[in-house]
Amino acid sequence: MSSNNMADPRRQNKILRYKPPSTDSNPTLEDPTPDYMNLLGMIFSMCGLMLKLKWCAWIAVYCSFISFANSRSSEDTKQMMSSFMLSISAVVMSYLQNPQPMSPPW
């Protein structure tokens, strides 16, 4: 085993463990995509709910998925889950229709 270690060209004292740069010292490293998608999802889901636009409701679901997929595990999930539930309710409410009263056959 020691003969194998002697043939190893790497220098043990030069090996450094990777430490990701902190976002506190450099705020440009933070990715704003989840926040923007969350905001867009809220706007589209409100349009889908208020105006009964199905395409707005589906775009809201899409934006919620993108926001969830791009978020970090350390972020608050309550806001993302509320945005996702709002977009799902916009889809459901846009497809619900008031039943028409039955007209007489004559």
UniProtKB/TrEMBL annotation:
<dbReference type="GO" id="GO:0045048">
    <property type="term" value="P:protein insertion into ER membrane"/>
</dbReference>
<keyword id="KW-0812">Transmembrane</keyword>
<protein>
    <recommendedName>
        <fullName>PAT complex subunit Asterix</fullName>
    </recommendedName>
</protein>
<dbReference type="InterPro" id="IPR005351">
    <property type="entry name" value="ASTER"/>
</dbReference>
<dbReference type="Pfam" id="PF03669">
    <property type="entry name" value="ASTER"/>
</dbReference>
<keyword id="KW-1133">Transmembrane helix</keyword>
<comment type="similarity">
    <text>Belongs to the Asterix family.</text>
</comment>
<feature type="transmembrane region" description="Helical">
    <location>
        <begin position="39"/>
        <end position="68"/>
    </location>
</feature>
<feature type="region of interest" description="Disordered">
    <location>
        <begin position="1"/>
        <end position="31"/>
    </location>
</feature>
<dbReference type="GO" id="GO:0044183">
    <property type="term" value="F:protein folding chaperone"/>
</dbReference>
<dbReference type="GO" id="GO:0005789">
    <property type="term" value="C:endoplasmic reticulum membrane"/>
</dbReference>
<keyword id="KW-0472">Membrane</keyword>
